[in-house]
Design brief:
- The protein is an alpha/beta fold and 209 residues long.
- It has a single domain, classed as 3-Layer(aba) Sandwich (Beta-carbonic Anhydrase, Chain A), CATH 3.40.1050.
- The protein has 8 helices and 5 strands.
- It has a 5-stranded mixed sheet.
- Helix 3 links the parallel strand 1 and strand 2.
- Helix 5 crosses helix 6.
- The longest helix has 21 residues.
Amino acid sequence: MDTHAKHQPKTKYTSGQALARLKEGNARFLNGEARFPTVQKEVLAELARGQEPFAMVLGCSDSRVPPELLFDASFGQLFVVRVAGNVLGPATAGSIQYASVYLGTPLLVVLGHDGCGAVEAAINEKFHGATHHSRVGYLLEEIFPALDGLDPNLDHDAQLEAGVDANIRETVRRLRESPEMQARMAAGDDRKVVGAVCELATGRVRFLD
């Protein structure tokens, strides 16, 4: 599979440069200085020949956290996968592997947000006896393992905040410890997986340690 990667376009950014670029873009967004309100037709025509995204984002489907806007990124700059609760299922993992192997994208950001409804639903089912429709239940099962260390005695807001962070960190851990990521890091590839939380009220993205 890796033998095909060299035939594909690759971004010129390192993982560290990609992360810095995301932080700079979020700062422009917060300051009302976003650079990409429109895209010229010439840019779209060039992108039709191929894509070279400098970062991947595994984000929540919530309509209030579009990564391209939060990071002031234009067409072709971010490879975005969005699913409720930013959970890591087989299709999600396959999409991430595609961008990593075939596009050479060096940075993956797991982007959650405060007040996440999927995490809240998982907490309510795990700790408070709530029930949900079957397909929603399948989604919540992906979040449950991240909540194992959560203090059940915390108040609602504190429990939800801790759950959001824990869910992001668990996904980051799973990605970092995957055989594919371990093999690439052992080979000296420039790969990085980081977690981040978007504050809905401001749009500020807080990157986790």
